[in-house]
Amino acid sequence: VQLQASGGGLVQAGGSLRLSCAASGRTFSSYVMAWFRQAPGMEREGISCSSPDGSTYYQDSLKGRFTVSSDNAKNMIYLQMSSLKPEDTAVYYCATTKPYGSRCPLFDFNSWGQGTQVTVSS
Questions:
Q1: Per-residue pLDDT tens over the stretch 13-60
Q2: Is beta strand 90-97 parallel, antiparallel or unpaired with respect to 111-112?
Q3: Reported confidence tier of residue 72, pLDDT bands at 50, 70, 90
Q4: For residues 9 and 109, what is the distance between their CA atoms, to the nearest angstrom?
Q5: What do you get for the CA distance between the two ends of the chain, in Å?
Q6: What CA–CA distance (Å, rounded) separates 8 from 100?
Q7: Residue 23: what are its φ and ψ, rounded to 5°?
Q8: Judging by beta carbons within 10 Å of its beta carbon (0-12, 13-18, 19+), is residue 14 exposed, middle or buried?
């Protein structure tokens, strides 16, 4: 599966943004899909992990502000972000892997999109 993330940009604190991740090559609904982010000088951080059964795990600190949805017909997955804060500034990535041998959020992801920059101004 090849992934391409898009939708990043500059937004003011308190605003919202929706990121998109387009998957090609396979039917992504049978794969585990995840969102990550990496801020400058920081470790990569998991945001969400969605299993083929439709369940989604969210990082506790982001629950309520970040929501994942998908459009299986379009092979798209989305990350809706609201009440954005300057500390949400990061490069955001989507990733995928086959749903075997582990469970969310513990999978090792072997296919990554190129990332999209989100900058939240104060």
A1: 999 999 999 998 766 778 999 999 999 999 999 999 999 999 999 999
A2: antiparallel
A3: confident
A4: 25
A5: 37
A6: 31
A7: -110, 135
A8: exposed
Q: Which two tokens stand for residue 119?
A: 């900058």
- Local structure of 103: helix, strand or coil: coil
DSSP state of 115: -
Question: Is residue 1 a contact partner of residue 109, using CB atoms and an 8 Å limit?
Answer: no
Residue in 109, 70, 79, 86 with CA at minimum distance from that of residue 8: 79
Our CA angle for 19, 41, 106, nearest 5°, is 60
Strands (E), the chain: 2-6, 9-12, 17-24, 32-38, 45-50, 56-58, 66-71, 76-81, 90-97, 111-112, 116-121
The residue count of the chain comes to 122
Rounded to 5°, the CA angle 48-77-67 comes to 45
Contact 44, 105 (CB under 8 A): no
Listed in sequence order, the residues at least 6 apart from 114 whose beta carbon sits closer than 8 Å to its beta carbon are 4, 5, 93
